[in-house]
Amino acid sequence: MSADSKKAHNFIESLIKDEISSGKHAGKVVTRFPPEPNGYLHIGHAKSICLNFGIAETFQGECNLRFDDTNPEKESQEYIDAIREDVQWLGYEWAGDIRFASDYFDAIYDFAEELIEKGKAYVCSLNAEQMAEYRGSLTEPGRNSPDRDRPIEDNLQLFRDMRAGKYANGELVLRAKIDMASPNINLRDPILYRIRYADHHQTGDKWCIYPMYDFTHPISDAMEGITHSLCTLEFEDHRPLYDWVLDNITPPARPRQTEFARLNLNYTITSKRKLKRLVDEGVVEGWNDPRMPTVSGMRRRGYTPESIRAFCDMIGVNKAGGTVDVGMLEFAIREDLNARAPRAMCVMRPLKVTLTNYPEDQAETLTLPVHPQNEAMGTREVPWTRTLYIDREDFVEEPPRKWKRLAPDQAVRLRGGYVMTCREVVRDSEGNIVELKCEYDPNTLGVNPEGYKPNGVIHWVSASDSVEVDINLYDRLFNHESPDSDKEGDFLDHLNPDSLVRLTGARVEKSLAQPRNDLPYQFEREGYFFLDAGASEPGRPVFNRTVTLRDSWAKAKN
Ligand code: ATP
Ligand code: MG
C-alpha cells in the first residue's frame, strides 16, 4: 500500500488509489448507484449511495443515478420519484440526467443478437421446471438443453419472433451458451432474455421481452463508461458472468465489478421486499412511517442527512459483513442533533401545579438560552405563571431512595426558574391525583435556596401560556435482534407491540407556538423531536421523537 492509501476511507478507495499509481487505471473514475425502482430506499442503500458518490467525490470523478428497471411488473413511477428525492436529500448530485437501464434496451437487444450470431447464445424451449432439473445442483453438473445446438439462423429467427410477440409468456427464453458443468451455477447457460407481456413505466408496450439483470447490468455499466461497478457481496458469484458478457460482446467500455458487504442492522430489516410487506399489510403507515429504516421514514422521524452520512462513515466498507448495532445509528443522530438542536421544554403527561403563594394576576418572563453551549443561538422567553404543568412521572407520593424529583414536602428546582416545595396533593372523586399545591421560593431565581437543598431539577411549562401538541414516541419496530433470521416463523412474528406510543395533549413552551419544520428540537430531559408537518393541523403541531437523549434501551429491556 502506498503511504497515501493509508488515509483512504475504505478498501475500495485504496484499491483505486493503487490502480492509479500503478497505471492500471487512467482517466476519470465513474461510478453509479443502480437501484431497482421496486420500493423505497433504506439505510442499506444509504451505505451504497455514500460509497458510490463518495468514491466519485474523492477522485473528482462522477457518479450516475441509474434505475435498474428490467422488472416492469414490480416497478413504478412512485418509487422512481421517491428514490430520486432521497438521493438528493442525502446531499448527492448525480452526473447528467437520471438514467434508466431501459434507455439501453435497443442496445442490449443488439448485443443479444451479436451473441447469437457468434454462436454464444441460443433460444431454449425448456419450461421452468425442466430448466431447474437440467441445471443440476451444487454437487452435480447440469445437462445440456436439447436446444443448445440449434443452428444460429434458427436462433436468430426465433429470437426475433420472441420480440415480435409470436410466443406466450414463458414459452421461450434466450440463454447464454457457456458451460452446463461449471462449478459456478451462474455460468450454467444463464437466461439472458425472457418473454413478459407487461407495460413498462418507461417504454410502454414497446417490448414483450425483457433482459435479465445479469445481462443488463454489465452492458448498462459499459454504455455509461462506468469504471468501477460496486455492488454487494451476493453478486461475487455473478462476477464471472459479468465478465463473460463484456468479454463476448464488443462493449463501448470495460467496467470492473468490486464487491463489498451489505449493511445489516439489528432489530430491523433491510430488504425492500420485506419492507413492502409491512406497508401492504398495514403494519406501518406507509414507506415513510418514522419506524421504518427507509430514508424517507428516517427523514420524517427527524434524522438529518449529515447524521446518516456520518453513520455510513463510521461503519466503513469492507468484505466481512456482519451486523451493525442500531445503537450506532442512534449515536450518530444524537451527536449531530446535540450540536444543532434548539432547546425547549415539553411536558408530555401534564399534571397541574398551583403555586399557592404566587399572586393570581402576576406573571413574569424568564429568559433562557436556546442552546446551553452555544450563545450565538440566542435566548428564548419562557412565561412563569401561578399555574404550571409538570410531568406526572416527575412526582410520586412515596419516593424510592435516591428519588431526584418531586414528592410531598420536598423541593425541586423548575428548570431555569424558581425552587418550589410540594405542600398538598389534590385528588378527584376516583382518587386520581389531579393537582399539586406547591409553594415557590421567590429568592431562588438563579441562586440556591438558603437552609435547604432542592431534590433535583425538573422541566415544566406555564399552564395558561403554553401550546397543546401531540407527541409520537417510537421504539424499535421489532423486538428480535434479527427478525428475519427465524427460519420457521415469519419476521412479522417479531413485531414490537409498543413501537409507537401516541401522547395527545402534551404541552410545549410558548416559544414553539410556530415550530419550524426544518429544525430538530431538544425537549429537555425527553429527547430530540422533529415536527411531523404532514400530520400536524393548524394550531395543533405533532412532534415525532427522533431519539432519546441517552441509550436507555438495553437497560430497560433486559
Ligand atoms: P433489496 O433487497 O432491499 O431490494 P437490492 O440490492 O435488491 O436490495 P437494489 O435496488 O438492487 O436493491 O440496490 C441498489 C444498490 O444498493 C445495489 O448496488 C445494492 O447492492 C445496494 N444495496 C442494497 N441493499 C444494501 C445493503 N443492505 N447494504 C449495502 N448496499 C446495499
Ligand atoms: Mg435487487
TrEMBL record:
<dbReference type="InterPro" id="IPR020058">
    <property type="entry name" value="Glu/Gln-tRNA-synth_Ib_cat-dom"/>
</dbReference>
<comment type="similarity">
    <text>Belongs to the class-I aminoacyl-tRNA synthetase family.</text>
</comment>
<feature type="binding site">
    <location>
        <begin position="36"/>
        <end position="38"/>
    </location>
    <ligand>
        <name>ATP</name>
    </ligand>
</feature>
<feature type="binding site">
    <location>
        <begin position="262"/>
        <end position="263"/>
    </location>
    <ligand>
        <name>ATP</name>
    </ligand>
</feature>
<keyword id="KW-0547">Nucleotide-binding</keyword>
<dbReference type="InterPro" id="IPR049437">
    <property type="entry name" value="tRNA-synt_1c_C2"/>
</dbReference>
<keyword id="KW-0436">Ligase</keyword>
<dbReference type="Pfam" id="PF20974">
    <property type="entry name" value="tRNA-synt_1c_C2"/>
</dbReference>
<feature type="binding site">
    <location>
        <position position="213"/>
    </location>
    <ligand>
        <name>L-glutamine</name>
    </ligand>
</feature>
<dbReference type="InterPro" id="IPR020059">
    <property type="entry name" value="Glu/Gln-tRNA-synth_Ib_codon-bd"/>
</dbReference>
<feature type="domain" description="Glutamyl/glutaminyl-tRNA synthetase class Ib anti-codon binding">
    <location>
        <begin position="341"/>
        <end position="441"/>
    </location>
</feature>
<feature type="domain" description="Glutamyl/glutaminyl-tRNA synthetase class Ib catalytic">
    <location>
        <begin position="28"/>
        <end position="337"/>
    </location>
</feature>
<dbReference type="InterPro" id="IPR022861">
    <property type="entry name" value="Gln_tRNA_ligase_bac"/>
</dbReference>
<keyword id="KW-0963">Cytoplasm</keyword>
<dbReference type="Pfam" id="PF00749">
    <property type="entry name" value="tRNA-synt_1c"/>
</dbReference>
<comment type="subunit">
    <text>Monomer.</text>
</comment>
<dbReference type="InterPro" id="IPR004514">
    <property type="entry name" value="Gln-tRNA-synth"/>
</dbReference>
<keyword id="KW-0030">Aminoacyl-tRNA synthetase</keyword>
<dbReference type="InterPro" id="IPR020056">
    <property type="entry name" value="Rbsml_bL25/Gln-tRNA_synth_N"/>
</dbReference>
<protein>
    <recommendedName>
        <fullName>Glutamine--tRNA ligase</fullName>
        <ecNumber>6.1.1.18</ecNumber>
    </recommendedName>
</protein>
<dbReference type="InterPro" id="IPR000924">
    <property type="entry name" value="Glu/Gln-tRNA-synth"/>
</dbReference>
<dbReference type="GO" id="GO:0016874">
    <property type="term" value="F:ligase activity"/>
</dbReference>
<feature type="binding site">
    <location>
        <position position="68"/>
    </location>
    <ligand>
        <name>L-glutamine</name>
    </ligand>
</feature>
<dbReference type="Pfam" id="PF03950">
    <property type="entry name" value="tRNA-synt_1c_C"/>
</dbReference>
<feature type="domain" description="tRNA synthetases class I (E and Q) anti-codon binding">
    <location>
        <begin position="457"/>
        <end position="532"/>
    </location>
</feature>
<feature type="short sequence motif" description="'HIGH' region">
    <location>
        <begin position="35"/>
        <end position="45"/>
    </location>
</feature>
<keyword id="KW-0648">Protein biosynthesis</keyword>
<feature type="binding site">
    <location>
        <begin position="42"/>
        <end position="48"/>
    </location>
    <ligand>
        <name>ATP</name>
    </ligand>
</feature>
<dbReference type="InterPro" id="IPR001412">
    <property type="entry name" value="aa-tRNA-synth_I_CS"/>
</dbReference>
<keyword id="KW-0067">ATP-binding</keyword>
<dbReference type="InterPro" id="IPR014729">
    <property type="entry name" value="Rossmann-like_a/b/a_fold"/>
</dbReference>
<dbReference type="InterPro" id="IPR050132">
    <property type="entry name" value="Gln/Glu-tRNA_Ligase"/>
</dbReference>
<dbReference type="InterPro" id="IPR011035">
    <property type="entry name" value="Ribosomal_bL25/Gln-tRNA_synth"/>
</dbReference>
<feature type="short sequence motif" description="'KMSKS' region">
    <location>
        <begin position="269"/>
        <end position="273"/>
    </location>
</feature>
<feature type="binding site">
    <location>
        <position position="232"/>
    </location>
    <ligand>
        <name>ATP</name>
    </ligand>
</feature>
